[in-house]
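Notebook B, p. 112. Complex prediction, attempt 2.
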Amino acid sequence: MKIAPSILSADFANLQRDIELVEKCGADYIHVDVMDGQFVPNITLGSNVVSAIRPVTKLPLDVHMMVISPERFIEDFANAGADILTIHQESTPHIHGALQKIKEAGVKAGVVINPGTPVVAIEHVLSLVDQVLIMTVNPGFGGQKFLPECLEKVEQLVKIREEKGLTFDIEVDGGVDNTTIGACKKAGANVFVAGSYVYNAENPKERMDALRAELA
Ligand code: DX5
Ligand code: ZN
């Protein structure tokens, strides 16, 4: 079970401090949300920020690309030090080719689907990926309400993974907190992204401990 705090809710003027903080609290990945203002109605950061944070942590950088035609930026993010590059099925007509490109760049490949997209849309690329991300909110912003109906897709993926003898991780992202993480685990997820719950808190350590306790 892995916890991946999302720096979307960190203090961007103190990114190093906020990354070190969650690393000390037992984070497994640092989740980095890349938004282009087109695929989602918000702009965050680019590969230059990934380069800048690469030396401040030993943790894998789990980069979630919410951009149109992400294949344009795969090389940049791989060179910047991303460990996992996860791209949206909805963001390119060439999801298969784009995932191949990520693997060729020597980075772990992830595919992600929005709440409105069914699992069947990614069935034919599952053998290519190291991770599948199921969005549990509509992407774009931190602090939104968890959509429990998305967990059915996690259950479907667990079944398909077994049938096909595959080994990808299943990650959930959006509205994950101490009250929702248990249901995600029960459905079969093993990587849990949490942004506002961890960072918008007086004591992030307590929040990380509370998430970990729910996974025990
Ligand atoms: C949403 C992002 C998430 C976001 C999660 O578009 O992909 O990673 O940071 O934030 P919370 O945990 O606050 O829902
Ligand atoms: Zn994300």
